[in-house]
């Protein structure tokens, strides 16, 4: 008798674990949003994990397998996932495809002919800037799209998804209001950032921050001393307040840049992936707050 009860219990447990709807997300940021909205009803796997580079992702046979078993596939869209078509075909995915950015007004990608538009930040060839998640107002659209996609695939959970989406939207909106108020306290002319990472134009548009690309510095190779003096000139001419050169690893060159240009250099902005759990950008909202705080600190340091 006891044995039967135990078997039933175990059966019940494994059934409820199995009953979570399998969802695949293309990368860590939409994976986090999907977990926020799906809660306990979904099991979300991210193809490109935290701290991984979406630009160099190549789907492996294991990814094809994951997708083949999924009910919902959440992607960013706007050309972010250049490998999307090939992968869904090889997995013969027949579930619900959710394009999280669907319906937003996209920005154009910076002209590829610019020297800085290195191949390391190329997401596709449709000429759109895919990094819309850096604008929390647009993320409200992401949330709506993900919630409605989950509901289509799992109508029984629709009420839960709507409830959780509303709650998440409230938190995202609060983060936006805080950011708007904080940036507004900095004179507009001072909101100029030079960065090698060409991913923040949506954030810049929302809060009137100019993100300038370094001119004459290749993103593929390590900067030289000569390129640094060119950067110093650009920083002075454009009156840049803060500099984030993530691909410049040479400490001496960074110090030289900071000294000669009289700006603070460094700090990390998270763009295309969340951090691991031990670092400060493990969720979309903590990433957004961390980036805003890092920018505020750099822009107000005078
Ligand atoms: Zn990117």
TrEMBL record:
Residues of the signal peptide: 1-19
InterPro entries reported in the protein's UniProt record: AdhesinB (IPR006129), Bact_metal-bind_prot9 (IPR050492), Lipoprotein_PsaA-like (IPR006128), ZnuA-like (IPR006127)
GO molecular function: metal ion binding
Main localization of the protein described in the UniProt heading: other
Origin superkingdom: Bacteria
GO cellular component entries: cell envelope
Ranges in a coiled coil: none
Localization per Swiss-Prot or TrEMBL: Cell envelope
GO biological processes: cell adhesion; metal ion transport
Keywords of the record: Metal-binding, Signal, Transport
Family under the similarity heading: Belongs to the bacterial solute-binding protein 9 family.
Protein name: ABC-type Zn uptake system ZnuABC, Zn-binding component ZnuA
Organism: Gulbenkiania indica
Higher taxonomy: Bacteria, Pseudomonadati, Pseudomonadota, Betaproteobacteria, Neisseriales
């Amino acid at each position: 008798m006891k044995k039967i009860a135990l078997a039933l219990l175990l059966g019940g447990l494994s059934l409820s674990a199995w009953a979570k709807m399998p969802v695949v997300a293309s990368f860590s940021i939409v994976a986090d949003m999907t977990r926020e909205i799906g809660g306990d009803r979904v099991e979300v796997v991210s193809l490109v994990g935290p701290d991984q580079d979406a630009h160099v992702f190549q789907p492996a046979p294991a990814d094809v397998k994951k997708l083949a078993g999924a009910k919902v596939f959440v992607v960013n869209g706007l050309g972010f996932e250049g490998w999307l078509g090939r992968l869904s075909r090889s997995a013969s995915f027949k579930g619900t495809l959710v394009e999280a950015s669907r319906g937003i007004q996209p920005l154009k990608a910076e002209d590829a002919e610019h020297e800085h538009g290195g191949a390391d930040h190329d997401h596709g060839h449709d000429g759109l800037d895919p990094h819309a998640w850096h604008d929390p107002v647009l993320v409200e659209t992401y949330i709506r799209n993900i919630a409605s996609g989950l509901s289509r695939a799992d109508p029984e959970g629709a009420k839960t998804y709507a409830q959780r989406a509303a709650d998440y939207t409230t938190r995202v909106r609060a983060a936006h209001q805080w950011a708007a108020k904080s940036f507004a306290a900095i004179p507009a002319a001072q909101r100029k950032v030079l960065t090698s990472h060409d991913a923040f134009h949506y954030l810049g548009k929302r809060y009137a921050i100019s993100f300038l690309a370094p001119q004459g510095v290749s993103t593929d190779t390590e900067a030289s001393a000569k390129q640094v003096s060119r950067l110093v000139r650009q920083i002075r001419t454009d009156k840049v307040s803060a500099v984030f050169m993530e691909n410049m690893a040479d400490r001496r060159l960074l110090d030289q840049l900071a000294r000669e240009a009289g700006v603070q250099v460094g700090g990390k902005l998270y763009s295309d992936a969340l951090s691991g759990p031990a670092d400060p950008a493990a969720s979309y909202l903590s990433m957004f707050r961390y980036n805003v705080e890092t920018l505020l600190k750099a822009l107000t340091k005078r």
